[in-house]
Write a structure and sequence with these properties.
By secondary structure, the protein is of the alpha/beta class. It has a single domain (about 5-210), classed as P-loop containing nucleotide triphosphate hydrolases (Rossmann fold, 3-Layer(aba) Sandwich), CATH 3.40.50.300. The protein contains 8 helices and 5 strands; from the N terminus they run E-H-E-H-H-E-H-H-E-H-H-E-H. The protein has helices at about 20-30, 45-55, 65-90, 100-110, 115-125, 140-150, 160-180, 190-205, and strands at about 5-10, 35-40, 95, 135-140, 185. The chain has a 5-stranded parallel beta sheet with strand order 2-3-1-4-5, sandwiched between helices. Helix 4 (about 100-110) crosses helix 7. The longest helix is centred in the middle third of the chain and has 25 residues, at about 65-90.
């Protein structure tokens, strides 16, 4: 396969609508005959899902930031080796709810783990794999947290201080500004249908095979 990897990551704060938009994109690709794997982080394999339980449950300050980073990277390694790489090698599209940019935003910008530490730890985990496209679903943290609360999401990350969520939003925007070839910021305050339309237009521009 030439061109960007058929590996699409969805990023954004709590309540941004990533799950909804992943499902819409997966359906549209499958309607065109594509093989699609939908997954999430932390998670995606039994081992990584077990680590997810440690990360999303419990009190907000449960983990030392570096320890939390290492847990995310351990889950990611299993996810890459057992699910993502085999799926890509088999010609599948992989749509992933969160990836390394979330570590940069949540553990880096919000919790203060130095960027160079995250990048150094991530290098042997990633082994050069980058998403072919990252869609950053952007909306004010207050709006996203209100959405999350309305659907009953009250995990560790939802209980972080608002200042953390503001830092996370800015981190995603900064990443997108630094890597415009990989990232597209999408206004997630729009109706879901409008967000899906922007995502599909972006897909067509990035991947000629779906145009």
């Amino acid at each position: 396969m030439t061109g960007p990897a058929r590996f699409i990551t969805f990023e954004g704060g709590e309540g941004a609508g990533k799950t909804t938009q992943i499902a819409r994109l997966a359906e549209r690709l499958r309607d065109r005959g594509a093989m699609v794997t939908v997954t999430r982080e932390p998670g995606g394999t039994p081992e990584a899902e077990a680590i997810r339980g440690l990360l999303v449950q419990g009190e907000a300050g449960r983990w030392d930031p570096l320890a939390e980073t290492l847990l995310h990277l351990a889950a990611r390694r299993q996810h890459l080796e057992r699910l993502i790489r085999p799926a890509l090698a088999g010609g599948r599209w992989v749509l992933c709810d969160r990836f390394l940019d979330s570590t940069r935003a949540y553990q880096g910008a919000a919790q203060g783990v130095a960027p160079d530490v995250i990048e150094a730890l991530a290098q042997p985990v990633m082994q050069g794999l980058e998403p072919g496209l990252t869609l950053v679903l952007d909306l004010p943290p207050q709006a996203g947290l209100a959405r999350a609360a309305a659907r009953g999401d009250t995990g560790r990350y939802e209980r972080w201080p608002l200042s953390h969520h503001q830092a996370i939003r800015q981190a995603f925007l900064d990443i997108a500004a630094r890597e415009p070839d990989r990232c597209r910021v999408v206004d997630a305050e729009q109706p879901p249908e409008a967000v899906a339309a922007v995502i599909w237009q972006t897909m067509q521009g990035r991947f000629p095979e779906v145009a």
